[in-house]
Amino acid sequence: MKILFLTPDVPFPADQGAKIRNLALIRAAAAHHQVDLVSFGNGSSGRGSFERGSFERGSSGHGSSGADPEGPLQKIVRRLAVVPAPPARPMLTRVWGLFFGTLPDLALRLESAAFVDALQEMVQGQRYDVVQIEGLEMMAYLPVVRALIPKAAVIYDAHNAEMSLQRSMFQVEFREPGRWHAAFYSFAQWSKLGSYERITMNDSDMVLSVSEADLAKLRGRRTVPELVPNAVDPAAIEYREPAQVAGRRLFFVGPADYRPNADAIRWFIAAVLPQLRKLLPDVELRLAGRGTERFTAPGVEGLGHVEDAHAELRRADAFVAPIRMGGGTRFKILEAMAAGVPVVSTPLGVGGIAVESGQHALVASSPQDFARAVHRLLTDRPYARQLSEEARRLVEARYAWNKVTPGYLRLLAQARRAAK
User: Fold this and answer.
1) Could you tell me the residue range of the domain that residue 201 belongs to?
2) Cβ atoms 23, 157 nearer than 8 A
3) Distances (CA, A) of 34 to 74, 193, 230, 336, 361
4) Is the dihedral of CA 175, 198, 206, 3 positive or negative?
5) CA-CA distances (angstroms) from residue 414 to 1, 63, 417?
6) Are residues 321 and 302 part of one domain?
7) Planar angle of CA 145, 148, 151, nearest 5 degrees
8) End-to-end distance of the chain based on CA atoms, in angstroms?
9) What is the distance between the alpha carbons of residues 290 and 22, in angstroms, rounded to a whole number?
10) How far apart are CA 322 and CA 343, in angstroms?
């Protein structure tokens, strides 16, 4: 079977949630089928521009400087085309679209004639059985795919239930006058995303959802979503038991230019940390991720981008996920659970993961309860060890790629048969 993937970022290095998922699914498909990839470069990763070009597996690796010919992608995909991501749309254009446009901002974010050209070149002389489009922002290319490859089955991989995501952002930020501008943006996008999401789902032959929670939010469309959970590779994540002695170091990771992460950091520092410092005056919070260096407070260290977030995770006594908005499933929580670092999270933070509070992690909503939960894990180390052991077992049983990808491969075959 021939499969073509369209992604918003080259999925290597897999240093973000979407890229982790994209690389895992591409790798699984390529183990049994012929896989090609058309992708944007220099996207949200901020790692510099990629030159337009392509390579074929087994060739000299000419073309894109962003796609390292010695990297794993050349060993996985047969052909790769990388296109520079378009520049950010002017603010006035975006504001005009908020009031007068019919499409959501997300649908216009990656508009690119160069990508259409690359797609046309890639499909020339090819007969693809399946085209998998990663994320709603890439579904703008669905009409092009239908025109170029009318007989291919189209799979839309919904990394988020986007309408629900914007609604959750609005509900949180509307309560904070200083964030009303962001709340207004989400409110303006909310209804447009609902219509766009429904149309793109109905025009797809199959829709994939990353969690049971998102599956429920995406129901009601003509195309019923299929579940392919987010997962990690536990074999590649070293498990370490929590230290026996009481700890003081907390850790959070995520780019602060993503609103749910920035909100989580602000809420923890403003509402949770003062409560926690009454119980543990010397507690420390370390933040890793692009933009976290701008957060400063007593006991808080924003590290900014770090090359090895797993090394920081291994030094932590507990992982905090004070998420109040968003959707999907958070890889950072699965990675912490796999690594043996006990987790304290809001209910939304562990949404989509079959976590039972008190067995796999501690889940709390209010600042007081969140602070007490963190205090318990830092001081009751036998209990922290018990939670970490159960969390690792849960990841191995339900959220390991080797448990998830067989079902995904069956869905690929099902999509191909349905399109014939």
Assistant:
1) 2-228+401-419
2) no
3) 13, 33, 23, 34, 40
4) negative
5) 12, 35, 5
6) yes
7) 85
8) 13
9) 21
10) 10
Query: Looking up tokens 């990388």, which residue turns up?
Result: 82
Instruction: Please give the chain's pLDDT, 420 residues, in tens.
Output: 999 999 999 998 888 889 999 999 999 999 999 999 999 986 433 323 333 334 444 333 333 334 453 357 888 999 999 999 999 888 888 888 888 888 998 889 999 999 999 999 999 999 999 999 999 999 999 999 999 999 999 999 999 888 888 888 888 888 888 888 888 888 888 888 888 988 999 999 999 999 888 888 886 667 778 999 999 999 999 999 888 877 899 999 999 999 999 999 999 999 999 999 999 999 999 999 999 999 989 999 999 998 888 899 999 999 999 999 988 889 999 999 999 999 999 999 998 899 999 999 999 999 999 999 999 999 999 999 999 999 999 999 999 999 999 999 999 999 887 665
Query: The tokens 């119980």 sit on which residue?
Result: 279
Structural domains counted in the chain: 2
Taking CA atoms, 58 is separated from 50, 55, 75, 77, 379, in Å, by 21, 9, 8, 10, 55
**Distance between CA 347 and CA 330 in Å, rounded?**
12
DSSP 284: E
Question: What CATH number does residue 286 fall under?
Answer: 3.40.50.2000
Identify whether residues 71 and 121 lie together within a single domain: yes
CA 97 centroid distance within chain: 26
Amino acid at 172: V
203 near 141, Cβ under 8 Å? no
Residues in the chain: 420
Do 260 and 335 lie in one domain? The reply is yes
CA gap 189, 327 in Å, rounded? 16
By C-alpha distance, which of 247, 157, 167, 242 is closest to 208? 157
Q: How far is CA 360 from the centre of its chain?
A: 22
> Looking at the structure, do residues 142 and 19 belong to the same domain, yes or no?
yes
- How far is it, in rounded angstroms, from Cα 334 to Cα 394? 9
The two most distant CA atoms of the chain are separated, in Å, by: 68
Both 65 and 191 in a single domain?
yes
